[in-house]
Amino acid sequence: MIMRYMYYLFVMLSITSCSLDFGYDYKIKRLPHKELSYEELPDSVRSFLYTESSSHMIIDEILFVDSIDSSIYHLESVEMGPWTDYYKLIDINKEITYRIEYSYYHPYIIWKNKLYIPYIPDRFEIYKSEHFKMAKYTEYELK
Fold first, then answer.
1. DSSP state letter for 106
2. Measured distance CA(62)–CA(111) in Å, rounded
3. Averaged pLDDT, 109-137
4. CB 140 within 8 A of CB 94
5. Residue, of 4 and 23, whose pLDDT is higher
6. What pTM does this model have?
7. Which SS3 state, helix, strand or coil, does residue 40 take?
8. What are the Cα distances from residue 85, in Å, to 56, 117, 122?
9. Looking at the predicted structure, is the pLDDT value of residue 113 above 90?
10. CB distance 125 to 61 below 8 Å
């Protein structure tokens, strides 16, 4: 009887601990954000995206408008079995991690402590300048 109870307790604790996620500090979707069109983006971001995509500095699905940011931010994928569960954006200087859902569009664009995620219906990846002009953007305020 006691063994059955212990087994039940062990199974319940295992299931509960698997459902909890302690691998990040903030979920991107819970940060302050606003929707923007291409024309509403800051001039530096817009002019950066206007240049040919071959000159973009893309590292791990992140576009860095300022190359200094490439030494501050790092992106990791968090796997659940053979699938990617979500991405973890890491601010190395502040030691803060952000969870970005796998379903979010990319590349992720970083400039001045802000994350821009483009969106075009029926398109998951955006790498050409004409696609950047058609996209809508969500601007997130990073901590």
1. B
2. 11
3. 83
4. no
5. 23
6. 0.79
7. helix
8. 27, 18, 21
9. yes
10. no
CA 20 – CA 38 distance, rounded (Å)? 37
Q: Which residue has the higher pLDDT, 41 or 125?
A: 41
Taking only the tens place, the pLDDT of each residue in 71-101 is 999 999 999 889 999 999 999 999 999 999 9
Query: In this structure, what DSSP letter does residue 122 have?
Result: T
Beta strands in 20-134 (DSSP E): 26-27, 33-37, 58-59, 62-64, 73-80, 83-91, 96-101, 108-111, 114-119
Identify which of 123, 122, 119, 124 has the alpha carbon closest to the alpha carbon of residue 135.
119
**Beta pairing, strands 33-37 & 58-59:** unpaired
| Tokens read off for 94 | 């502040």
Residue 8, pLDDT score: 63
Residue type, 8: Y
Per-residue tokens: 32: 């302050």
C-alpha–C-alpha distance, residues 60 and 84, integer Å: 14
What SS3 class is residue 90? strand
Take residue 13 and report the two structure tokens written for it.
């604790």
Q: What is the chain's length?
A: 143
